[in-house]
Amino acid sequence: MSLTIAALREAPGENRVALSPEVVRKLVKGEFQVLIETGAGDRSFYPDAVFEAAGAKICDRQAAIQGADVLATIGQPGKDVVDQLKAGQTLLGLLQPLTDLDYVQELAAKKVNALAFELLPRTVSRAQTMDVLSSQASVAGYKAALLAADRFSRYLPMMITAAGTAKPTKVLVLGTGVAGLQAIGTAKRLGAMVSGYDIRPASRGEVESLGATFLTTSVSATGEGGYARALTPEETAQQQAELAAFIAQNDVIITTAQVPGRRPPLLVTQKSVDAAKAGTLFIDLAASALGGNVAGSQPDKTVTTAQQAQIIGAGDMASQLPASASDMFAKNVQAVLTAIVQDGKLVLDVDDEVIGELLATTNGEIISSRVRDALKLP
Amino acid sequence: MSLTIAALREAPGENRVALSPEVVRKLVKGEFQVLIETGAGDRSFYPDAVFEAAGAKICDRQAAIQGADVLATIGQPGKDVVDQLKAGQTLLGLLQPLTDLDYVQELAAKKVNALAFELLPRTVSRAQTMDVLSSQASVAGYKAALLAADRFSRYLPMMITAAGTAKPTKVLVLGTGVAGLQAIGTAKRLGAMVSGYDIRPASRGEVESLGATFLTTSVSATGEGGYARALTPEETAQQQAELAAFIAQNDVIITTAQVPGRRPPLLVTQKSVDAAKAGTLFIDLAASALGGNVAGSQPDKTVTTAQQAQIIGAGDMASQLPASASDMFAKNVQAVLTAIVQDGKLVLDVDDEVIGELLATTNGEIISSRVRDALKLP
Q1: Which helix (H) or strand (E) holds A160?
Q2: Smallest Cα–Cα separation from A157: which of A187, A193, A191?
Q3: Contact A22, A327 (CB under 8 A)
Q4: CA distance B56 to B66
Q5: Does B214 touch chain A (CB under 8 A)?
Q6: Which stretches make up the Alanine dehydrogenase/pyridine nucleotide transhydrogenase N-terminal domain (chains A, B) (predicted)?
């Protein structure tokens, strides 16, 4: 008896799909059956026929939910799905276990095993192949630089023509994690004059190796797990003031600073936005319902200031490069499956340093210490 | 007494402006006064204040029209402008003298001097600094490659990540004139696997020097003035059949083939469009009211086929990079002004090998032999 993996059509606005034809091909060669909901890959340009050719069975939503031993998903499945889940089924995806506590409690109550990518221990090297946050941030950084190039009113590269020379565009990337580095690399490819800013001084080497200038302020804040720590109000004010000078010297500003589970830090103040000259472009990858890195940014909207600067709230960039993003996501899913299946059976080892962390709930219990902390459980 | 140059706010949908702040600065240092209509630069992110700081006088539309010795324009000014023009005034821009014969006859009747960039002798080397078709095609090619990168569902470059390797996207550029070469160069910068096709075998060197693969068919058609000649129906059929094989092997197809004053050649047949797999992206730079290079393309629209391929009608790409495109256009305008002003006076020398060609009408007469041919005048 083989295990069945299923993927559903995601919610409207989410273009990705949690399994790709390439990964399906590998899964069916192994010990898995694969169910794909009709139309699940449409928005990633993977039609049903392509999944079918890869060995998946195309079925309706209910059949996919009910037939799945493991349901792979990009975002939280909605109430229609959760209502149908049964004890012992496993859910794997971005389940927001630290910010949507009701949801994780409901999964526990239903005795669903919930593997949440947000809980992955990102500094353990064998977890890297499962790191959805990293793979999707990389897509987002690439896409942000392209969006900048497409929306900005000038050439990014220097151009030498019969009619004269155009200067290269100055691009500043705030936050040089995975997304920031990929944005820097892509803007450099396009010939822009790029600088990267981070409050972690250790980022200098990575930024400079891409041929960009490294900027930092007098505030330094290396934190846990590779993230920056949260700053004090005094440090924040000092950082914002020092950043304002960098911002004023650039044409395109891409911001990527996120602190897991918290409001993103405000890096570009209203004063900097108001001072920005006509045509300046801000791309805020942290734009979310919680706020963003740029004052006044709104998720999925372009805001034009009185001075004709533009602020693009670009929190869902990975979904905008859906085929590549799905490919990467699916490979991360496959890596988790490889880790949790032994001899054709699902083994969720709570003592494993990776899987034990990834597991939010199993057997009706919330076992993740991070989720328990958030719920103030002992 | 100095000469006055003016630029107006262009028609809706046209984001460019015919003079840039940089060129205004140079003109006012010389022997010119400059009038800019209120808001003319808004859509290029050049606010009135920036033009004013450069030395222009900001005024209303009527004052700009009436005060101009030379009116520089991107596209044909509308009836409201033409009605106000007086004998002896000079109009300089893309005036469609070969395709809109009524318009050029009206300018002649009003004794307006019309300098039309479409008539520039493009193979004369001193005309290169005035070559608007070339400068704007260069912008369009750059923008087409960026649009492709932004709209395509996958990474253009090869990506090596913890979760695996993504293959580079295959980009095919049909027509390797100025726009095509710039599209090739930009797609190469982004890391795509690029090939360029042209029916002029002499293009091979330019394409290969950009690191792209040169493709050609058994049909060869070098024509006049650097353009390809029009093909016979038999040659067209043969070319289309041979191209179909190239198209089927690529993910992104950018088409740039234009023949001045004629319907653009159909390079991608309906059969090729229908055979294209999901996600294939066609960008048709020749898309116009006359038709385009891709079957079914529509100007300024995205058409999705039954197989989920996309066809983007991208005939106005230069207008979508408005600041850089305006800068280049304005430099071309400045080069013409330099050629037609001597000792502070306008001298339109009909015997000059460049200006004589550029002039469609002067002193109430249509003097361009190309326009006279189109009008069947002796």
Answers
A1: strand A159-161
A2: A191
A3: yes
A4: 16
A5: no
A6: 6-140
The owner of tokens 């996501």 is A329
Q: Which of A30, A25, A29, A112 is CA-nearest to residue A73?
A: A112
pLDDT (tens digit per residue) in B298-350: 999 999 999 999 999 999 999 999 999 999 999 999 999 999 999 889 999 99
pLDDT given at position B225: 61
A227 annotated active-site = yes
A-B CB pairs within 8 A amount to: 117
Contact residues for B108 (Cβ-Cβ < 8 A; gap 6+):
B114, B360, B361, B364, B365, B366
Cross-chain residue pair A328–B138, CB shorter than 8 Å: no
Tokens of B46: 């050049």
Question: What's the N-to-C CA distance of chain A in angstroms?
Answer: 39
Subunit contact A163:B335, Cβ cutoff 8 A: yes
CA distance A219 to chain B (A): 31
What span, in angstroms and rounded, lies between the C-alpha atoms of A167 and A250?
A: 13
CB-based contact (8 Å) between A26 and chain B?
no
Question: How far is CA A88 from each of CA A97, A112, A113, B375, rounded to the nearest angstrom?
Answer: 18, 5, 6, 82
Q: Is B135 on the interface with A (CB under 8 A)?
A: yes
Q: Alpha-carbon torsion B314, B319, B324, B330, what sign?
A: positive
Tens of pLDDT, residue by residue over A6-54, are 999 999 999 999 999 999 999 999 889 999 999 999 999 999 999 999 9
Is A197 catalytic? The answer is no
Bridge-partner residues for A4, per DSSP? A33
Chain A closest CA to B147's CA: distance in Å? 6
Place of tokens 């630029």: B7
Question: Which chain A residue is nearest to residue B333, measuring alpha carbons?
Answer: A163
Q: Residue B377, exposed/middle/buried by CB under 10 A (0-12, 13-18, 19+)? A: exposed
Q: Look up residue B369 and give its two tokens.
A: 């032999």
Neighbours of B333 (CB within 10 A): 28
Cβ pair B149:A153 closer than 8 A = no
Token pair for B203: 């293009």
- Touching check for A42 and chain B: CB below 8 Å? yes
Three-class SS state of B171: strand
Touching B: A residues 89-128, CB under 8 Å: 128
CA–CA min distance B153, chain A (Å): 5
Nearest chain B CA: its distance from A163 CA (Å): 5
Could B323 and A134 be called an inter-chain contact, meaning their C-beta atoms sit closer than 8 Å?
A: no
Residues of chain A predicted below pLDDT 50: none
In the structure encoding, which two tokens stand for residue A337, read together? 């499956």
Tell me the one-letter amino acid at A211: G
Catalytic machinery residues of B: 122, 128, 131, 134, 227
Reading the block at residue A141, the tokens are 């950084």
**Residue in A74, A42, A36, A72 with CA at minimum distance from that of residue A56:** A36
Written as six digits, the tokens of B187 are: 């797609």
| Domains observed in chain A | 3-130+322-374 (3.40.50.720), 137-315 (3.40.50.720)
Instruction: Write down the pTM of the prediction.
Output: 0.94
Contacts of B308 in chain A (CB under 8 A): 42, 45, 47
